[in-house]
Structure formats: structure tokens, C-alpha cells
Amino acid sequence: MENKEQQLNIELSEEIAEGIYSNLAIITHSQSEFVIDFIKMMPGVPKAKVKSRIVLTPQHAKRLLHALSDNIQKFEQQNGKIKEGEANAFPLNFGGPTAQA
């Protein structure tokens, strides 16, 4: 019996290849899916837009977690530790005016 590797052809259009910048991701889940909203926040702008939404099965979400973890580890081996900001630091005003009480 011949053991042939299956090959997957993945097409990447020019529009998608450009990518979308995101500086915030919000993750929610239900029993059957994980939803990741990628958002672009701009300084001084009180409104942020979801630029892309990805819906994953729980199994694919876990695979993504492992793949991202593996890639971060490889990145840090080549480039040094990634510095993290404060835990749970969420810039609600992102450089805009602060609320007055």
C-alpha cells in the first residue's frame, strides 16, 4: 500500500494578504464555539471598530492556543522575552479625555 501525504492548497488573495491591524482582541465562547473579535482602537477616539471576527470550534481554539504558544516561544528564543504591560490593563479612554465625576 502506497503512503501518500495529502497536500492542502491554500489560496491567499491580495486583499487578505495585506492583513488587518488589531491592537485589541475580545474572546467570548458558548458551548459550541469560540468567537474572537479583533479590534482597532485609535488614540483619542472613543469608538473602536471590530475589524475582523473569527469563529472557531473548541477543538480549533485549543489548537490555536498551542500553535500561538509554540510560535511565541520560538519568537522569544530568537528575539528575547516579549515585555508585557500590566495585567488587565485595558485603556478605556486610550489617550482621550478622562471622565469627570
Report what the structure shows.
The chain is of the alpha+beta class and 101 residues long. The chain has a domain at 14-79. It has two helices and three strands. It has a three-stranded antiparallel β-sheet with strand order 1-2-3. It is extended and about 60 Å long. Mean pLDDT is 86; it is low at 92-101.
Number of strands: 3
Tell me the overall shape: extended
User: What letter string, H or E per element, gives the SSE order?
Assistant: HEEEH
Q: What would the average pLDDT be, to the nearest integer?
A: 86
* Uncertain stretches of 5 or more adjacent residues: 92-101
- Classify the helix fraction into a percent range: 25-40%
**Strand content bin:** 15-25%
Largest beta-sheet characterization: 3 strands, antiparallel
How are the secondary structure elements laid out?
Blueprint (H helix, E strand, L loop, with lengths): L13 H4 L6 E6 L4 E7 L8 E8 L1 H22 L22
Key structural traits:
disordered C terminus; alpha+beta; 26% helix; 101 residues; 3 strands; 2 helices; three-stranded antiparallel β-sheet
What's this model, at a glance?
With 101 residues, the chain is of the alpha+beta class. It has helices at residues 14-17, 58-79, and strands at 24-29, 34-40, 49-56.
